[in-house]
Amino acid sequence: ARFGNRPDLTIILFTLDETVYSRELAPLAGHYPALKLGPAWWFHDSPEGMRRYREQVTETAGFYNTVGFNDDTRAFLSIPARHDVARRIDAGFLARLVAEHRLDRDDAFEVAHDLAYRLVKQAYKL
Asked: What is the pTM (predicted TM-score) of this model?
């Protein structure tokens, strides 16, 4: 607990086993401020994989214990398309929360901006 609560420490976790997000990682990220969850990446970089990630993580860890969406250069030319898909998946998830009256519309706009821009800048200190 000594390190997990340090305000000057950020640990970003990625996994290839998406079942670990809801079972182990989201509860840990919800408890330890230093722990952040990396996006649905590599084997989860499809619309359905991204949707499953958002559903598995948000209920327990919330939005602000994630780092938005980042990418690598292994498929350099597809980066804009993958970021567009990630933003659309997050927008759809937020729209559903607004339609279900679980999130205010203004808050959804703020979270959308955070997921697309601010969280990545904070996590990677850009």
From this structure: 0.88
